[in-house]
Amino acid sequence: MKFQPDHSDAQIISGYGPGWIRIGADKISHSVLIGASGLRQAWPCARFEDLGAGHFAQLAGLDAELIIFGSGPRNRFPAPAWLAPLMARRMGLETMDTPAACRTYNLLAHEGRKVVAALIL
């Protein structure tokens, strides 16, 4: 699917498909952290089963009010114990499949929210 968003200063996902997303002209085919203010870094988990508590502790260290977690092609929830670092910092986490996470991230980023998408591709 390709997006045609209104102009925004936030970093926006311009397209996605199975196993990839596009940010501007860059096609990304590995799991990634994306922030509205320009964060873009690889996230070391190729699939949901690779996740652990350390992945969510890493998210708690980011400058965000909300994390959108894209769990891959279907909606899967992380272990509740892994969310303790996020709760301690009063950061929200919304879990959905990766295509829905891309759309939700774009809406929130376009609104100027301090949002980060953690996407398993």
Quick overview:
Helices cover 21% and strands 26% of the residues. By secondary structure, the protein is of the alpha/beta class. It has one domain: Hypothetical Protein Mth938, Chain: A, CATH 3.40.1230.10.
Which labels suit this protein?
121 residues; alpha/beta; Hypothetical Protein Mth938, Chain: A; five-stranded mixed β-sheet; three-stranded antiparallel β-sheet; globular
Topology, pairings included?
Blueprint: E1 15-17, E2 20-23, E3 26-28, E4 32-35, E5 40-42, H1 53-60, E6 66-70, H2 84-88, E7 92-96, H3 98-110, E8 115-119
Parallel strand pairs: 6-7, 6-8
Antiparallel strand pairs: 1-2, 2-3, 4-5, 4-8
Description of the molecule:
This protein is of the alpha/beta class and 121 residues long. It contains three helices and eight strands. Strand 6 (66-70), helix 2 (84-88) and strand 7 form a beta-alpha-beta unit. The mean pLDDT is 94.
